[in-house]
Write a structure and sequence with these properties.
With 342 residues, the chain is an alpha/beta fold. The chain has three domains: 61 residues, 434 Repressor (Amino-terminal Domain), CATH 1.10.260.40; 125 residues, Response regulator (Rossmann fold), CATH 3.40.50.2300; 137 residues, Rossmann fold, CATH 3.40.50.2300. Helices cover 39% and strands 16% of the residues. The protein has eleven helices and twelve strands. Strands 2-1-3-4-5-11 form a six-stranded parallel β-sheet. The protein has a six-stranded mixed β-sheet with strand order 7-6-8-9-10-12, sandwiched between helices. The protein is elongated, with a radius of gyration of 24 Å. It holds the Pfam family LacI. Keywords: DNA-binding, Transcription, Transcription regulation. InterPro entries: HTH_LacI (IPR000843), LacI/GalR-like_sensor (IPR046335), Lambda_DNA-bd_dom_sf (IPR010982), Peripla_BP_I (IPR028082).
Amino acid sequence: MRAITINHVAEAAGVSIGTVSKALNGTGRVSFETRERVRREAARLGFVPRTRADSGAAVDLAYSVGVLTSDSFGRFTIPIMLGAEDTLGPGRVTVLMCDGRGDALRERFYIDSLMRRRVDGIIVTGRGNDARSPIRGTGSVPVVYAFAPSTDPDDYSIVPNSQKVGALAVDHLVGGGRRRLVQITGHESQAATAERHRGASSALTAHGLQWAAAPQFGEWSERWGREAAIRLVRDGVDFDGAFCGSDQIARGFVTGLRESGIDVPGQVGVVGVDNWDVMVEAARPPLTTIDLNLAEIGRRAAMVIINAINGEQVPKGSEKVEPSLIMRDSSASPAPPSSATR
C-alpha cells in the first residue's frame, strides 16, 4: 500500500501543496470552501500530517516553486536557487527549474507547465540583469523577478545595486593608494555595464580623480580581458589600478599584464566582479572581487513568496541588494607605487 503524501491531497483537492499546508494547519488566507475541500480529501485518503515531536504541531509544510531562467549554465541561477531553498527550508521545497533560453515560446510552454503543476510561486531570473518583459498567465500565483528585473513597475523585482558595485571597486583601489584607474568591462549596451560605470565614475570624481583612459568595452570573457591589458600597455597608458566588469575579464586581464611584464599587485591592482570561486581562486594572484550576494537575492525572493502564500500582497517596484567587497591578493597596496608602463 502506497504512503499518502501531501502531494496526493493537493492533486485530489485541485490545489497547490502550499494551500494544503495552510488548510490543514489553519494558517494563511484560505477560503472556507477550499479549507473544507482539502480536509475532506485528506480524510478520504487517510492522510496524516507529520508532527513535530516536541510540540505535536502539524509541520507537514511543503512548497513547490518554479524557477524560470535564461541562464543555461546556472552561473547566476544556482546561487539564487540555493538562497531561496535556505529560506523555504531543507526538505520543504520542490524547485522546478525551467530554462527558457530567452525564447518566448519556450517560456510560454514552461509557464503553462508550472501552472498545471499548481506551483505555489514562480521566481524569474536570468543570465544578466537587463530588464525583461513580464510573464503572463500566472493568475494569483505570486511571481518575483530576481536579478533580471521586470519592465512592469507593478511587478516586484530584486536586483543587485550595480552602481554600488562600481563605487566599491573604485573606493577600494583608491584607498589602497591607486590613483590612475582604468575600467575593462562587457557590452556597453547592457544595464549592468552602464550602472557600474556610472557608480565607478561618481566615486572617482568624489576622490578628485579621472579615468586614466576611456572605458574598454568588449566581451564578458577572459580573452577580452587579456586583449585589453595587452592593448593598454602597448598604447602606453599610465595606470596603476583596474576595475574589471567580471571575474572572467579580471583573470584574463591579469594574464595579459603578466605577459606584458607587469606585476600584479606590485604595479597594478585589479578588482573583478561576481566572486566566482572557479575564477577568483584559480587566478594568480587570487582576485579581489565584488560579490553580488546572489544568495541573498534568492532568500528575499523566497520570503516574498512565503509571505504571499500566507496571504500578504506581493509588493510592487524594485528592491536593491547591496554588494560586498571580498579582498584577496590582486589588489594589495603597492609598495612603493609605480606605473604600469615601462
